[in-house]
Every structure is written in C-alpha cells, then in structure tokens.
Amino acid sequence: MSEQGMRVTQPTTGAERIAAFRAILAEKQHAMIDGVIVPFASASHVVAVYDALKPENQALFASWPAPKMVAIAFKVMKKVS
Fold first, then answer.
1. 61: closest CA among 25, 18, 8?
2. N or C: which end of the chain has fewer CB within 10 A?
3. What is the pTM of this model?
C-alpha cells in the first residue's frame, strides 16, 4: 500500500495480475496495477471478460499489461451490450 492508502501492484505473472483486478472488486476500491490507476468499473469489465474466456485464452489475456487488458475488455463489453 502507498499513495494515500491506494493499493499499488506490479504483478510478474498473469495470475498475480488477475488477482490484483479481483482484489479491486473485493475491496470496492481503485488500485494501481502496472503503473496505471484502475477504477472499479474497469476491473469489473476485465474480470468479466477473463472469466468468459477459454483457459488457453485466459493465459494470453492475463499476460498483457493492465492498460491493454482494460482497453480490450471495454471493446468486448461494448459489443456485448
């Protein structure tokens, strides 16, 4: 924890990155992942897209940096809704 109580995470694996997004949802609090602030809504979209993917695609999606994951998640969610 730093930056006025905000969680700061520098994940080294895809599993750690997804865990950081899930922590945002559990804590209902934004956090910094891969150097960018991720709000609750963005984390929600990323986790929803991740959970909908097949396992082999989950590994690929989780390996991307947080900004790319958020951008792709928003594009997917826009098409779905």
1. 18
2. C
3. 0.90
**Count of CB atoms situated within 10 Å of the CB of 47:** 17
20-29 pLDDT, tens per residue? Answer: 999 999 999 9
State how beta strands 7-9 and 31-33 pair: parallel
List C-alpha distances in Å: 23 to 46, 51, 55, 56: 12, 15, 21, 23
CA–CA dist 29, 76 (Å, integer): 23
- Integer CA distances (angstroms), 41 to 2, 13, 37, 50, in order: 21, 22, 12, 14
d(CA 40, CA 46) in angstroms, rounded, equals 10
